[in-house]
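PROTEIN–LIGAND DATA SHEET

This sheet pairs a single protein chain with one bound small molecule, flavin mononucleotide, given as SMILES. Inputs appear in the order they were entered. The predicted three-dimensional arrangement of chain and ligand is reported afterwards as a token string under its own label.
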Amino acid sequence: MTTLAVRVGKLSLANPIIAASGTFGFGEPFSDLVDLAAPGGIIGKSIGLRARAGNSPPRTAETPCGMLNAIGLEGKGLDYFLEHVVGWLSKLKTVRIVSIFGDTPEEYDALAKKLQEVAPIEVLEVNLSCPNVKQGGLEFGHDPDLVLRITADCRRAFTRPLWVKLSPNVTSLAPFLRAAAQGGADAVTIANTYVGMAIDWRRRAPVLANNTGGLSGPAIKPLALAAVHRAAGETDLPIVASGGASSPEDVLELMVAGAAAVQIGTWNFFDPRAAAIAVQEIEKLLCQEKVADISDLVRSLKRNTPLPPEPA
Ligand SMILES: Cc1cc2nc3c(=O)[nH]c(=O)nc-3n(C[C@H](O)[C@H](O)[C@H](O)COP(=O)(O)O)c2cc1C
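PREDICTION REPORTED AS:
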């Protein structure tokens, strides 16, 4: 027998598989198809203070081994969530993780304060890949000072586990990992999507109305492995991997690289049973390899060479 239970800081999960934000809802669309208790946790689509239409279509494009999305954080806002979604959360028998975004640091703070009062939420994940409206649209996740401020504000407001989801579109993760730790995060999610683009050369035009979008899916798994491996060398904070996991083996690779838990995103789009399959199959793989406890894999990578220093 193999133990699949893991810990992300003080939080226990029945297994390391988590449905990623924006790719699974809170499981409602799939409740007739899959066992929603199969993943160790489910993260809902990021919610903001107010309803938001998101970007104009086309908002997605298929790419070799992946997809681009520029949804633009469409959503019905906090009031709708409190009125219509919280009841559904109470029925879920897995760890419920709510993802938030804001247009300003004050909005993150307001969301964290409100959600502290909502019982069926075990974890708050702070999505920093949102344009900072006051400062010309550069994403919060690109400024370590703002990462520190938003993390610290959310930490004060929300007393249960707080995860900070970083952007991978930076030269060095190190200052952002330090900011998350200093702000009091319990874990970091590494990472959101990578900026990419699709072009229709005949029209001389970008395929996405937003010009660029976030690349996800199998195409980014090697990037995610490198980012998680780098983060594991830079921080003692638990790491939750997000990026490219599209098979049970991918999940185990990300854990060896340093992840305590692994989110599944785009894989849900090509098979909504992805999380359940991952849980079943990793158990078989670990039994074959005689690994009694999956936690023994976390940060178990034997590097071939020492980690070279990153720019400060
Ligand atoms: C259509 C779509 C919508 C997404 N929406 C969100 C979101 O609302 N908040 C967020 O933090 N990440 C969002 N993501 C990013 C995913 O949670 C995940 O971090 C990313 O897709 C990388 O993982 P993957 O390669 O397993 O898909 C979205 C991704 C996709 C494809």
